[in-house]
Amino acid sequence: MSTTETAIASAEAHSAHNYHPLPVVVASAEGAWMTDVEGRRYLDMLAGYSALNFGHGNRRLIDAAKAQLERVTLTSRAFYHDRFAEFCTELAALCGMETVLPMNTGAEAVETAVKTARKWGYRVKGVPDGMAKIIVASDNFHGRTTTIVSFSTDPEARADFGPYTPGFEIVPYGDLTAMREAMTENTVAVLIEPIQGEAGVLVPPAGYLPGVRELTRERNVLFIADEIQSGLGRTGKTFALDHEGVVPDMYVLGKALGGGVVPVSAVVSSADVLGVFRPGEHGSTFGGNPLACAVALEVIAMLRTGEYQQRAAELGDHLHRELGLLTGGGAVEAVRGRGLWAGVDIAPALGTGREISEKLMEQGVLVKDTHGSTIRIAPPLVISKEDLDWGLDRLRTVLSAR
Ligand SMILES: *Cc1c(COP(=O)(O)O)cnc(C)c1O
Fold first, then answer.
1. Among 7, 69, 96, 371, which is most buried by a count of CB atoms within 10 Å?
2. Alpha carbons 178 and 204: distance in angstroms, whole number
3. Is the CB of residue 256 less than 8 Å from the CB of residue 50?
4. Considering Cα of 83, then 88, then 93, then 98, what sign does the dihedral take?
């Protein structure tokens, strides 16, 4: 057996099979490139589902992490530490908001948003105890906890994990009328992704997101934007909602906030909304730890310059132009997305998304399939135009070799 085969067999023998990875075993990485245990190089066109927006081994982020590793890494929230205030202040400023509640993973931040909305509903809006409802969209992806999978419409994510948490109303994504009709006086929040990543990089119809903003404001309902994957530069702006000029009541952030180094997530909102929490009502041992704050502060500083957003916008225009040319030829049925983020529907005759992903891997390009026939393209924002073109060439090769 090859080194790769041995490593995979051993991993499969000793880990739960809750993922189906491509058969590549990465040993090191830099920028947009990864190297496997046999020395083969691959262009990373997934970027850890946007957790690696700034690339592998980004110097600024690694240096920030190293410096903090030598000082203090964890205090727990039982004490203050000297990076905490700066992190909260800077993240709130980046979001144009006032208050930050830091967590670690995306799912925890979504859970935090759900708890915030419910408590806000009871304490501020005056919803009767136990009656709070949150409206979510079909085909959503917000994480994997028991409460979050309770409002998933994906049978794979949900089946066998009940009993399910009540209090959620599912409406079709992109359908403002359905959302309006689902709203009652007990609705406390709307929780949606401005672009649905897992669903295949679905961009909602123009006017939908401003419509959600208007409707939620009218009905005294919190607009919670899950920008865990769409935010922090990916789409060519800091937030995907920026493209529509929409400001939500609450951002849920994660993935890229940790710079691909450590898990960092947060809920960012107004002092009124996050002010509903009292000591002891919510928390996390690692939430807002010094190492997380140090790395995230560097991420925020990098985003403040706007250069990564601009890169994503420019390279994204190029990516979508090139992908658009493929749609005429029959191999590609549709391309969606924004910035350096694309969902590409492959004609079923050419193979499943998984098969295309495996062929791309053989060509030295790593992507991930979703929903049968779609592949997701989301390279690190630091990718060079030459490398992006090289990756697109490999895609063309795979799609033309029937
Ligand atoms: C990845 C993701 C999550 C969950 O984040 P984890 O860190 O994996 O828990 C939630 N929402 C969206 C939109 C995501 O892309």
1. 7
2. 14
3. yes
4. negative
In terms of Cα–Cα distance, which of 174, 234, 238 is closest to 382?
234
The catalytic position among 36, 44, 226, 387 is: 226
Question: What pTM does this model have?
Answer: 0.98
84 is catalytic: no
Is it the case that residue 336 has pLDDT exceeding 90? Answer: yes
What DSSP string describes 118-174?
Answer: HHHIIIII-PPTT--EEEEETT-----SHHHHHT---HHHHTT--SPP--EEEE-TT
Asked whether 308 lines ligand 1 (CB < 6 A), one says no
> If you take atom 15 of ligand 1, which residue's CA is the nearest one?
229
The single residue of 84, 255, 286, 345 carrying the catalytic annotation is: 255
Query: Alpha-carbon dihedral of residues 263, 247, 153, 359, nearest 10 degrees?
Result: -60
| pLDDT band at 401; cut points 50, 70, 90 | low
> 364 pLDDT exceeds 90?
yes
**141 an active-site residue?**
yes
| Euclidean distance between CA atoms 308 and 317, whole angstroms | 14
Helix-strand-coil split of the chain, %, nearest 5? 40, 20, 40
Ligand 1 and 47: CB distance under 6 A: no
- Picking from 236, 152, 247, 159, the residue whose alpha carbon sits closest to that of residue 199 is 152
Residue 133's φ and ψ, nearest 5 degrees, are -125, 140
CA torsion through residues 96, 102, 107, 108, sign:
negative
Which alpha helices (H) appear in 36-105, and where do they start and end? 47-50, 59-69, 84-95
Q: Given the DSSP bridges, would you call strands 374-377 and 342-346 parallel, antiparallel or unpaired?
A: antiparallel
The rounded Å distance from CA 166 to ligand 1 centre is 21
**What is the DSSP annotation of 327-368?**
HTTSSEEEEEESSS-EEEEEPGGG--HHHHHHHHHHTTEE-E
Ligand 1 contact, 253 CB (< 6 A): no
